[in-house]
Structure formats: structure tokens, C-alpha cells
Amino acid sequence: MSVHERRSDSEITERKLLQSTVEVARHVFASAAASVFLVDQGTGELVFEAVSGEGEQHLVGTRFPAGTGIAGWVAASGQPMIADEVAAVPQFAHDAAESTGYVPRSIMAAPVIRQESCIGVLEVLDRSATWRGDLADVDLLALLAAQAAYGLELLLRLRRAEAALPAPGGDDVHVLLQRISDRVPRGGGAADPTALKLLAVAEELLH
Fold first, then answer.
1. pLDDT in tens, 119-144
2. Cα dihedral value 85, 126, 107, 54, nearest 10
3. Greater confidence, 48 or 14?
């Protein structure tokens, strides 16, 4: 099995963990949908990483600008939010919701925290009207968000590891050495001094 195949298998495993979390959340709250966003650490964007229910066929990978909607507020504040009537909540972004193909009436959202930083958001849309009490809902949502944290952390570690590995056929050290070596003329011609220095340093590091 190639390195690429092993990495693909690993990502499938992490995604299954995230997907199981949103499926459990949707079942527990008898909701229309549940999703996990990842906060892109480079841009601050919110990225759908797992969706169950409404939008699950097309939303994974969709991005929203930092601070968008209730999920954006939760990501920025690190605090959960329950909005039983989203129309009455200023943080709700109607246009963003409309772009997903589903505009909810209610939203529960909790930050996904790892090492004291918010790395994502767990959202539940249109939970059932069965009365459980807001505190119980918040506590249960927080437990599910903690589960999502493990999935997102594993996915982030995997992606960081992938970024650190040379791409197949990419500019790894051997390709670099070949390029330097190509600058050293054959047949006794004058060599490029910089190329000779690079070759000498590279050989010293590799031995």
C-alpha cells in the first residue's frame, strides 16, 4: 500500500468519526440536520467537515467567511448559543443559510474546543419540540462537541502530517540534489561554484 493510500484511508477514518458524531446529534435531538464546521486556522473561514440530514449530499467542503452567522459568533466567542427563533437573533445570517438550501427556524451551536482553542463548531438545526430544558440541551450538546473535538483534532494532525511529507514526484531532497548536480558541467568544464557548495553541504547533511 502506498503512502498516499495510507493517508487516504486515515482521512476516511477521521471523517467517519466526525460523521458518526453529527448522526448521533441529529438522532438525539430529533433534528432536521446536524453539522460540524472546522475553523480554518489560516483564514478563519468556517468549513463544513461533516453533515447529517439536510444538506448532507452537497455541503461538505463548503466554506463561509470568518464570523458568518451563529456558527461564526460561537467560533469567535467560544460560547454556545441556543436560538429558538433565529429570525430574532442578530447573529443569524439568512443569506448564508439560504445558500445551503435550507433555512432553519432554530439553531443550537457549541464550540469544539481543543487545548483551549476553538477549532470548530457543532450545530443542530430545528431540534424537536419535545421539552428537555435548555440547560439539559446545552450540556448534551457540549458532550457531543467534545466528541467532535477528537475527530477534528485527528483530522488536523493528519493534514499537518500530509503537508510535511513531500508530494509524490515532488521537490524532495533527491530531486533537489539532481538539479544541483545538473549545474555541474561534465567533461571538465568550469563548474558553478554555488552548485558545488550546495552539493558539498547536502552530502555532509545526508551522511
1. 999 999 999 876 555 557 888 888 88
2. -130
3. 48
